[in-house]
Amino acid sequence: MKVLQINTICGSGSVGRITVDIVHALEEQGDEGMVAFGRRTGPEGIPTYKFGTDLDMGFHVLHTFFRGEHGFASKKQTGRLIEKIKEYDPDIIHLHNIHGFYLDVEQLFWYLKQAGKPVVWTLHDCWSFTGHCAHFDYIGCMKWKTGCGSCPQYRSVYPYALFKDNTASNYQRKKAAFTGVPSLTVVTPSRWLAGYAKESYLGEYPVQVIPNGIALDKFHPVDQGLRRKLGFEGKYILLGVASMWEERKGYAYFEQLADRLPDDYQIILIGLSKRKMKKLHPKIHGVMRTNSMEELAEYYSMADAYVNTTLEDTFPTTNLEALACGTPVITFATGGSVESVDESCGKVVPKGDVEALEAAVKAMRSEPDKREACLAKASHYDKNERFQDYLKLYAKLLHEE
């Protein structure tokens, strides 16, 4: 079978890496895959088609800023994509993130409704069923259930419609575009997101949960003497990791923990910007962003506990990476973050409750070693098995045709 995946980027970022891994999984069983993408560059050795341009992305950004209509520009390059789909003639079309300043979603879905091909759409956030935002959990806004409008965060969150609130119109246009595809299956990485998708207008489609997977050959317990190199012997180490430490990732809670915990605790945060490094709390050890899985595995393995203070998240892979390195996870009860954590391998505390967070950290320190339980939990998230779930779904859809 031939599968064409469509995503903002290919080969980098968590979703971009997923597209590449799915191509590898297809090729290993004698099938064929290609990734069509709009921005950056694709990796060597993977069949790809870049249909976007930097100039068009700039126009789409301006279109979003001034008209508040994200996803409703880029008509010319969407036309190029459709021509490529016709030429490649895939058996399955697999959508990932179709937002990101590179697609006209109305044009694409008009084609999908005519093409008669099975479509798989993996939702990595909530953008598909709102009038604007990719996440609404932080502010607890549920307007998307009936129709958006008077958006409380259209200026402040991606995709940043700075000068116009067009969320009511966007919602109706997206609903009209995204419904009515003859054969479409929605996939989500968490039960939390699946539940919301079923409540939205996408609930007319079957919804299946396929959790994100991780590379267990990269993330596993390692001991390279990092604790000694950093001078943290005798410390109970708490680790936090984020690609960007914005307010919604809960950076402030680590500062509060640093003030509350005794000196024999050490907080390490990875993914800090230069600006945050300059203003770092004196009791926090900061590390700038790293794309090295090997380096991350060293930090996860060194830590006594991984602490996830995110205030909104679909299904964080950092939890899985920590577990795979034998490190228990303490997380706020946020979105899908709780789905990879149970009492055997970590703790869940009420979102935003710093006192409960402190208590959980201290309780974890007094409990028996959880390494084996963490590794057992992580074994359920082997990326190779999760991509097999996609191949099974593809085969099922083709069999039903």
UniProtKB/TrEMBL annotation:
| Positions of the Glycosyltransferase subfamily 4-like N-terminal domain | 15-217
Which keywords annotate this record? Glycosyltransferase, Transferase
| MF annotations from Gene Ontology | glycosyltransferase activity
Keyword field contains Transferase: yes
Q: What class of enzyme is it?
A: transferase
Enzyme Commission numbers on file = 2.4.-.-
Q: What is this protein called?
A: Glycosyltransferase
Give the organism, scientific name.
Laedolimicola intestinihominis
For this protein's source organism, the top of the classification is:
Bacteria, Bacillati, Bacillota, Clostridia, Lachnospirales
